[in-house]
UniProtKB/TrEMBL annotation:
InterPro entries per the UniProt record, alphabetical: Haemolymph_juvenile_hormone-bd, To_sf
PANTHER family cross-referenced by the UniProt entry: PROTEIN TAKEOUT-LIKE PROTEIN, RE70318P
Classification via Gene3D superfamilies: Haemolymph juvenile hormone binding protein
Organism the protein comes from: Pararge aegeria aegeria
Pfam families recorded: JHBP
Keyword tags: Signal
Name listed for the protein in its UniProt record: Jg8905 protein
Signal peptide positions on this chain: 1-22
Length: 242
């Protein structure tokens, strides 16, 4: 009787505390073993980005954002119900983790990111006035994203130490032309809309620098929330070797 009971408790403990998949995703590495970490993270990232419904981790590709707000000095824009695809194809590299596990730096190289949703925009796109609202479609070429982030170690509900990603800073650079398609600019006045699209097409580098940050911060914020949700299911000791 006693044995049956302890076995049941043990089985429940395993199911609840470790989750079904947790240990399998991040291969264990020593902190100083950069090559191992790179390999481990590269293998795990696409699975976490795709989402793990069994663990309650939502999809980051497609990534859905109800609201993105860009409040720049000369330009205000809002994107609603935006869907972004492409993050799972970003290559992660140059991962540098501080030996005390308080900071991480890494680089993402994304072949293409596609966004669509509803927009509302008003202000100046560098030299041209721009206003309107409607459907929008954005397709980037190669994007380079540098991420610098703080890490934190905290006890989880299982009493074990868990890693999480805290504040982060981004440096994003478009490496090739971006296709802008904002429907119904200026209430559908074609000549004005064409002028803005032509300018944005030709000046994609300058335009991306002006408008990109609120979008990338909103995306990364949500992706990191999903990653942290995953990290809550797996104790640090399961993927960090001493
Ligand atoms: C976004 O989608 C939700 C759910 O479909 C809808 O209720 C809401 O009105 C949409 N937002 C906008 C600005 O259209
Ligand atoms: C902007 O570039 C896209 C893709 O190259 C092209 O289809 C579109 O016609 C261009 N728009 C203008 C107004 O130049």
């Amino acid at each position: 009787m006693f044995h049956k009971y302890t076995f049941l408790l043990f089985a429940l403990y395993c199911l609840c505390s470790d989750g079904v998949l947790s240990n399998s995703l991040l291969a264990p590495c020593k902190i100083e073993d950069a090559a191992c970490i790179q390999k481990s993270v590269q293998a795990a990232a696409p699975k976490i980005i795709t989402g793990i419904p069994e663990l309650g981790i939502e999809s980051s590709d497609p990534l859905f954002l109800e609201r993105i707000e860009g409040d720049l000095s000369i330009l205000k824009y809002k994107f609603f119900n935006t869907t972004i695809t492409g993050y799972k194809d970003c290559q992660i590299s140059n991962i540098i983790i501080s030996p005390d596990l308080t900071n991480v730096h890494f680089e993402l190289n994304c072949p293409t990111l596609k966004m669509s949703g509803l927009y509302d925009i008003n202000g100046r796109l560098i030299i041209l006035p721009v206003e309107g609202n409607g459907d929008f479609f954005l397709t980037t070429g190669k994007y380079n994203i540098l991420v610098d982030s703080e890490l934190k170690i905290q006890p989880g509900t299982d009493g074990k130490s868990h890693l999480s990603i805290k504040n982060f800073k981004l440096k994003c650079t478009a490496k090739s032309p971006i296709i802008f398609d904002f429907r119904n600019l200026f209430n559908g006045q074609k000549d004005l809309s064409d002028a803005v699209h032509k300018f944005a097409n030709e000046s994609w580098d300058e335009v991306s620098k002006l408008v990109q940050d609120p979008v990338f911060y909103a995306c990364m914020n949500k992706i990191i929330k999903h990653v942290n949700k995953y990290l809550k299911t797996v104790p640090l000791e399961d993927f960090k070797l001493n």
